[in-house]
Amino acid sequence: MADTSILASPGAAARPAREHFAEQYVPRFVDKWDALIDWDRRKAAEAGFFVERLRAAGARRVLDVAAGTGFHAVALIEAGFEVVAVDGSAAMLDQARANAARRGHALDAVHADWRSLGERLDGTFDAVVCLGSSFPHLFAEADRRHVLGEFSRRIAPGGLLMLDHRNFDAIRAQRYKSSGNYYYCGTGAKVSVDHADESLCRFRYEFADRETYTLEVYPVLKDEIRTLLADAGFVEVETFGDFKAVFDIFSTDFVIHVARRP
User: Fold this and answer.
1) Distance (Å, whole) CA 188 – CA 57
2) For residue 149, how many other CB atoms are within 10 A of its CB?
3) Which of 57, 89, 134, 246 gives 66 a disulfide partner, CB atoms 3.0 to 4.6 angstroms apart?
4) Would you say residue 13 lies in a domain?
5) Tally of CB atoms within 10 A around 11
6) Domain of 179: which CATH number?
7) Pairing, β 254-260 against β 235-241
8) Is 81 a domain residue?
9) Residue 166 is inside which H or E element, if any?
10) Is 185:42 a contact under the CB 8 Å cutoff?
């Protein structure tokens, strides 16, 4: 795959990464990811949203299927949950293990593609979390449906799925402006939309040292996800905008869905 630091122009033809999403996370980009997030500011912004819902559901064992560099996996461990971390990027998992170790934790981490999750994991969990707008890495609708089935099979009856994504409703309507107050709270990088249409969104990450990277994802809409969750058998689907139950879709950074497996 081409070096992800090489950008196409905003009007360039869409060239989705599709089967090679993990290759977008080249090591130098991964090295910068934690500065982009700012763990302390992100934890403050979330204000216990995920932890509170997991505790209210009686969850104990959690599968973090989009671990990235480990922010949520470590936060959940420190909140008292038993966590297994999964990611499709080996570079991300290496950084997650290192981050956990620096905080005194041994991270149970598994390198796996969601589409074959059952081949890498045994048993079920009280909850699956898929956060950091990771689900949009799946470009094909068949993959999105299959993966939600894989997630469902990893959740014990009555357990939760928590899944989020950027506000692609606003992005596709060209009405999106990130506040920088929630997921990507770091101050050393600028994140912008380089290209957006109904089938592809390309984000541009510009760092203070002038290194630039892009990520290509499928711009899934809020109601599209809700339909997929219902079709996959999930019930009691709640949707939040920036952790609020009542929100303006065009003034929201991230959309979060919380659903239950019957």
Assistant:
1) 37
2) 15
3) 134
4) no
5) 6
6) 3.40.50.150
7) antiparallel
8) yes
9) strand 155-166
10) yes
